[in-house]
């Protein structure tokens, strides 16, 4: 029976063209690799777009990012209170106000002492400069005063460059973010407002993002999101607790030893403890350098300062991190150091802090990608790519 001509078919009829079998069809391997290329290009493009937006809109985005992180960490408490029949709006407002009150109380209690010690530290630097000149002249009597002055200047310049390379550049965002009173006020006014509204609409936002996920990948994305959530919560919460414990430990013991600027150095040591090894090296070098100048004729006190940091590192590495930081979010120290310095260089202090949860999330995604690759036909070599 012959197929009807186009002019003999009734209007609105669907015409299905015969399949063209003359052109070679791509093999399963080629289709698989093409799909993975599309996915990789999409994720790389998304990542590059986010980095460009953060770089261009850094000062504007900072309160929104911090507000989003605050909402993320407060959301479990808000959900718990909501399950106990407390309105979500009320619980969100109470938790955000409580958090701001806690931050304000900490600033009121600690900031005057820290600023006073920082001011004293700045005033003491010229005296240390003269002491370094005299020390060079005493150790090498043949060296002239001018040569000693030049050697001392070189020494302090090298110390400054070393500290800059080791972490001061990461913390330089503090000065940049506080150089404008307007930016400071806008940040502290806008950040809690963003956190409150995100907490209010958290479930709706999650549902909206989930609705964009292709249905075929929904279960995988949900599983990945759950793993990322566990990793970020466990890793970041653990790192924060470790930093607080170390800040109290260093500030208390350095103060008992009688080290000048002990409170400032202790808080600084705890603050930079989220950078593995580098934070302890920078704060330990600063404390030991001050101890050498202060306790030049008291080697016991110098040994005590050294012992405080040695014991602190042992306690952190052997007890605090293994027991407090979640093992489900294991991140290699090299990757964490690289991420902190890279994001700190690009975005200042907010970037360095944001690098910690981002690395925890990225570790989950990388482990998933490696697992998928090991179980893929590409790794097993079970098909012919060329077809």
Can you tell me about this structure?
The longest helix has 52 residues, at 88-139. It is globular and about 80 Å long. It folds into 2 domains: 58-133 and 168-207, no CATH class; 219-378. The protein is mainly α. It is built from 13 helices and no strands. It has helices at 28-56, 58-83, 88-139, 145-171, 173-178, 181-200, 202-211, 218-257, 262-271, 278-294, 299-324, 333-374, 377-380. Mean pLDDT is 75; it is low at 166-178.
Number of domains: 2
Query: Given the structure, what is the number of helices?
Result: 13
Helix share bin: over 70%
Rg estimate, integer Å:
29 Å
Series of secondary-structure elements, N-terminal to C-terminal: HHHHHHHHHHHHH
Concise structural overview:
By secondary structure, the chain is mainly alpha-helical.
What topology emerges from the helices and strands here?
Blueprint: H1 28-56, H2 58-83, H3 88-139, H4 145-171, H5 173-178, H6 181-200, H7 202-211, H8 218-257, H9 262-271, H10 278-294, H11 299-324, H12 333-374, H13 377-380
Helix pairs in contact: 2-3, 2-6, 3-4, 3-6, 4-12, 8-9, 8-11, 8-12, 9-10, 10-11
Descriptors:
387 residues; mainly alpha; 80% helix; 0% strand
